[in-house]
Design a protein that fits this description.
It is built from 8 helices and 15 strands. By secondary structure, it is α/β, with parallel strands linked by helices. GO terms for molecular function: oxidoreductase activity, acting on NAD(P)H.
């Protein structure tokens, strides 16, 4: 029997362990990818500790991977053996990123932009999809997937602009709303980069406590139409809601993190999951369209990357490091 290695989590809270398993073969609509790099996400350490969205045990964690196509199912037309790709991963052990051969449905896979290393490419998928879901959650169209959509929002606050989700959302919002006021919060060392990605003005995180400067930066000084809370900060810092224009649509979207904000009266809160994008208008092409977005320069790497090691054994210490927090950085492991 030919075997490959995977990093298994036997149960929540236990140790990640390298295990040999039978080499996978693809179903008709699946792609097997030899992993060359994986990115580490907050969801991975939360799953390791609490198993929050683990469908079955033992689990193979990891939602972001990049590598080389090893095998394709009979119905797969758009990829062939040897193609360099990136993929959203996870939701089944064979699909987890933290293994030698990742087996995923073809709609989760995109060609790797030639300009990106495997490590850079691995940093993209889940943050891009979650940024897209957060933008959609505000009713703003994803113009690269649905060019006919429109939105009347004129001003939006992106909370946590230096996160992978936040910096992705700023870019997608700017594509959809070329003349909107897009304000964002982050620590100051990221402001120049976030302006280059499309933000109109950046604020230190202290503006989340006293939002007067944010409100003053909106066109009429009355506050923003909507908040895209990339880091679910509204759950612990409800003062952020005071940035909203009381006479505006008062929309708030945020990725699901397990911490739910309490909506003040009249505020509509829309929690989103990255995978929701596939069900949105044009969303079936969400991953394949990412290649063109990057190659055309419309979507840049949202964060810098830092390679924290090589091999499956480097993933667990990498997750320990991620738990302590990162700033404008995606941690990546080469395989
Ligand atoms: N449900 C889903 O489908 C889904 C998918 C992906 C991610 N998520 C969740 O979305 C969140 C963002 O993920 P990510 O990968 O983009 O995170 P990340 O890049 O690891 O986030 C780190 C950044 O968050 C910023 N930050 C942290 N706390 C903040 C706060 N209270 N206010 C403002 N900024 C804050 C930091 O900003 P500074 O250092 O500049 O201060 C830092 O740059 C995570 O909670 C993750 O679990 C959910």
């Amino acid at each position: 029997m030919s075997t490959v290695q995977q990093l298994q989590l036997p149960q929540r809270g236990e140790r990640l362990t390298v295990v040999s398993v039978e080499r996978p073969t693809p179903s008709p609509d699946e792609v097997c990818i030899r992993a060359k790099a994986v990115a580490l996400n907050p969801l991975d350490w939360k799953n390791r500790a609490f198993g929050i969205v683990v469908p079955a045990w033992p689990a193979v964690l990891g939602v972001d991977g990049a590598g080389i196509v090893e095998a394709v199912g009979d119905a797969v037309k758009d990829f062939k053996v040897g193609d360099e790709v990136l993929s959203l991963c996870g939701m089944a052990a064979r699909a987890g990123a933290f293994q030698e051969i990742i087996t995923v449905p073809v709609n989760l896979v995109a060609k790797k932009p030639a300009s990106l290393s495997f490590e850079e490419a691995a940093s993209l998928p889940i943050c891009y999809l979650t940024a897209a879901a957060s933008v959609s959650g505000l009713g703003v169209p994803l113009t690269h997937l649905d060019p006919t959509g429109s939105s009347s929002l004129k001003s939006i606050l992106v909370v946590g602009g230096s996160s992978g989700v936040g910096a992705g959302a700023i870019q997608l919002l700017r594509m959809a709303l070329p003349s909107a006021t897009i304000l964002t919060t982050s620590s100051p060392q990221h402001h120049e980069r976030l302006l280059a990605l499309g933000a109109t003005q950046c604020f230190d995180r202290s503006a989340q406590e006293d939002t007067s400067a944010i409100r003053a930066a909106t066109p009429d000084g009355a506050g923003v139409d909507a908040i895209l809370d990339a880091v679910a900060a509204t759950a612990t810092e409800p003062s952020i809601f005071s940035a909203l224009n009381p006479a505006g649509p008062k929309l708030v979207s945020h990725p699901v993190t397990g911490q739910d904000p309490q909506a003040p009266e009249g505020v509509q809160i829309r929690p989103v999951m990255g995978r929701q994008v596939f069900a949105s208008k044009g969303g079936h092409a969400a991953m394949s369209a990412l290649t063109g977005l990057v190659e055309s320069g419309k979507y840049k790497l949202p964060t810098k990357i830092e390679v924290v090691g090589k091999g499956l054994d480097a993933i667990s210490p990498g997750l320990d490091r991620l738990m302590k927090g990162v700033s404008g950085t995606k941690l990546v492991v080469s395989l």
